[in-house]
Specification:
The protein is an alpha+beta fold and 212 residues long. It has five helices and seven strands, in the order H-H-E-H-E-E-H-E-E-H-E-E. It has helices spanning 3-42, 49-72, 85-100, 121-138, 179-188; strands at residues 81-83, 106-110, 117-119, 143-152, 155-164, 192-198, 201-208. A hairpin with a 2-residue loop joins strand 4 (143-152) and strand 5 (155-164). The model has no long low-confidence stretch (mean pLDDT 84).
Amino acid sequence: MTSETEQLELEILGRLAPGIAHDFNNLLAAICADADMARRVVGPGHPAQEHLEAILTTVAQGMGLTAHVLVNARPRPVQLREVQLVREVEAVAGLVRRVAGEKLPVQLELSEQAPAVFADPAQLCLALFRLAGTARRALASGGQMRVEVRPEDGETLFAATVTGEGLRPGLFEAGGLRRELLERLAADHGARLTLSEEPGRASLKLALPKPG
């Protein structure tokens, strides 16, 4: 793995960290509430008390760690540079597949003829991570994710499509996939954004101009 690829993966993970920390903190809060309720129900002297106290202590430590991540997370301005998107997507394909999981196999359709673009590859690849994670959680059963990079009308098309039972319109209305965030991503790159949704299918497309 090249140092550039490692840097890109670390950048993506850094951008994902605040959202993951927030969601994980909510899970820990639910565990804390249930464990505290169980501790009060069983009462002093019960054999489970010691274990419940240990759970509460561990949860508190975990919430402290997630709070540290949230406090120290800082947004980074867009950093555009000339890149070959095919190479960038290839570099993070393994991580995208881990996020998508077995329920959502990822298919790559990458054209070597795609022109270079000025882009922030970490931001573009972050959209893939968010789409993969959101779609995986929404699927009732198996599905598929297709990622494309190809030339189209003198531009470079960067597209991702997810299909599967359980997907409903509204995927681009919440979280890191909110329409306004994707529109800002497109504006930062001087790109045209197309979002489409229907039962069982959702896609996002960015048409990125050539440099210069």
